[in-house]
Every structure is written in C-alpha cells, then in structure tokens.
Amino acid sequence: MKTRAATEPSPRVLDTTARLASVDIVIPVLNEERALPGCVRTLARFLGDGFPLPWRITIVDNGSTDATWPVANELAGQFERVHVRRLDIRGRGAALRAAWQDSPADIVAYMDVDLSTGLGALFPLVASVAGGHSEIAIGTRLARGARTRRSLRREVVSRAYNALLRYGFGVRFSDAQCGFKAARADVVRPLMAKVEDDSWFFDTELLLLAEHNGLRVHEVPVDWIEDTDSRVKIVRTAVDDLKGLARVAWSMSMGRARVEVARPELTPTHPDAVVARPLTVTTAKFTSFAVAGVVSAILYALIYLPLRDVWSPALTNFAALVLAGVVSTEANRRWTFHRRTAMHARAATLFLAHYALTTMAVLALPRGAGRLAEVSAVAGTYCLLTLIRFTALDRRAFSRTRN
C-alpha cells in the first residue's frame, strides 16, 4: 500500500453531518443609540467572516429612554441573524436572565456594546464550552497574557474587588466582571434560578454559585480597552457588590446555594483503568472550621469591648484583630490544604481585608450611635468575614471530594 493512500483520512472524519453547537451572543443595552450600530455591524461582519459555529446576535434593550429601541429594530431588519428584545426594567443581569432563559442556542454568551474586549478572544471563549471541557468561560483582564488600557481608578478598583473574591471566597477565577462570558445554556439556567441580583453583581453571583457547585470556569486572557462613555457608576456599583457578597456568603453558609446542575461524573477513559481512591474530607474537619470561626468571633468581641474604653475605634479594631486572628490562623494552619508559605501570605492578606472592612463599618456609623451599636457593627462585620472565610474553605474541600 502506498504511504499517501494509507494516510488519507477516513470518510467518517470528513463527515459534516455532525451537529455543531449553536451560539447566541447577547448585547444588553441602555441608552446606547450612538454605540449600538457600530457594535452590531462590526460583530456581524466578524462572525460572518468565518466564525465556525452557527450564531445569532440578540440585542436586549432594558429600559432605554432614547432612540435605542428604534435603532435596534432597524439593525434587525438589516441583518438576518440579529434579533431584538425589549424589557421595561433596567439592569444588565435582568437583560441576560431574560435572553439566556429563552435562547434556543446551546451556548449563551454576552459582550458589552462598546466592544472593549477584542473579538479575537471570542472563539477561544466559546470553544472551551462547546468542546465540553468547561461549563462556563470568562474573559479576564488580570491573568497573564491579557493586555489592557484603562484608567488607574478602574485598575485599582478591579484588582481590589477581585482580590477580595480570591482571598475571601477562595475563588479560582481572576476577573469576575469582565463583560465577556459564555456558558452552556442547560447549565446556566438552573444557576440563574438562584441568582437574586439583576444588575452589575449578576456576573459575580453567577460565578460564585458555579464554583460553589463544582462547575468548571475557564478563563481566556483578553485585550481590553476602556471606553470612557460608560454607564457604570464605579462607587455605587462597588457598594452594591459588597452588599451582594454578604448576601451570597450568608446563602452559602445556610446551604441554600446548592444547585442541581448537569455535570458528568469524573470517570476513567480507559476501560481497564485502576482508579485511585477519592480524597475524603471528614465531618470532623468541617466541624473544626465552624468551631474555630465561632470562637474567634466571640473572642474578637470580648477583646474589642474593654479596649474601646481606652483607644480609638481604629486602634482598638487593630488590636482585637491581631489577638483574635491567632485562633483562626492556627485553625487554618492545622487544616488547610495549601503549603505553609501560601498560608502565611493568605493570612496577611485576610488580615488587611478584615481590618479595612471592619474599620469602615464602625466609622460609617452616625455620631452618637452609642457603644452598643458600634460594637455590634464591628463584631457583626467580623463575624460575616469569618463566615465567608470558612465557607470558602468548606467549598474548596467539597470541590476536591467531587473532583
């Protein structure tokens, strides 16, 4: 047999009848009559020039008061694969929830109307989901390989927020709020049923629930350029995000964040494989996490109260955190799965985050609120942060037993 003939592909390899996963790219818009035409024309041209999967574009106008809706309808008339939908309520989360819930596509995605994220990352984003490797894929501006051009203010806020997620919740993803995401439709729908936020926190809450339930989140480093004509209110969004984090942490601790999602079990590919025993985490360890958290929180309150009679709130808070932190750090040292050096770095970062947030809580109280209100505010914030910390440890251990 000739070499060339032997290496010709089988007809089955060239079979094009296999069904490709379809993709629905959602563009949520609010008063974007200026930016929308350029966005849709650019995106449709990019997809039409060789995007390998069946696609459609869905424009969701959620509460615009300008000419966005007529412009969207005009674009839908010009492009066969462009669809439009209108909501009377505002919020990016509400727009994505409505479009993703009713989409006929296998994969649902979204991007911002300003096209700040380079379109070259779109197929890598979708491919990891279409191939079954991950359930959710996100663009990241903070991972190695990403290139960004944005103001110092947004850079600092973004890194601080994602550091809080990483060290507070123990998440593995690096950028929760990049407006460039894709997900399997059948997986994201049960998750959305648990997501309460309909605004900017929608992305973060969705990702937290995904990792909490053992789903795999794939990251794609992107090129990103800030568009200064943005509808995002940085300070207001940051405050709403902190409130959302507190709510999600409480939901996780109460066991209300578990979702039944379609995810295949981890099984060997080889039929004769000798499989290792899975790592198990005992109930005793979980109990130790909870006990250590409660003890350290009570100890913190007991230390803070008498010292407050002598020192200022900020200094008292610092001393109470140092002394109470010994208990939780020791518990983390005993039960953590990380190396010792990583544990020390994590402890230092957690201390700074605890100190900043608890001090903000006590200083935010109105004058004359009273000592009881002050102690309640700072102790309550400390308890919440401790709860987030040990919830993250519990989630990591749970994830390891599933994987």
From TrEMBL:
InterPro entries: Glyco_trans_2-like (IPR001173), GtrA_DPMS_TM (IPR007267), Nucleotide-diphossugar_trans (IPR029044). It is found in: Membrane. The chain crosses the membrane at residues 286-304, 310-327, 347-366, 372-392. The keyword Thylakoid does not apply. GO terms for biological process: polysaccharide biosynthetic process; protein N-linked glycosylation. It is a multi-pass membrane protein. The keyword Glycoprotein does not apply. Residues 25-187 form the Glycosyltransferase 2-like domain. Residues 289-392 form the GtrA/DPMS transmembrane domain. One of its GO terms (cellular component) is membrane. Keywords: Membrane, Transmembrane, Transmembrane helix. PANTHER family: DOLICHYL-PHOSPHATE BETA-GLUCOSYLTRANSFERASE (PTHR10859:SF91), GLYCOSYL TRANSFERASE (PTHR10859). This is Putative flippase GtrA. It comes from Nonomuraea jabiensis.
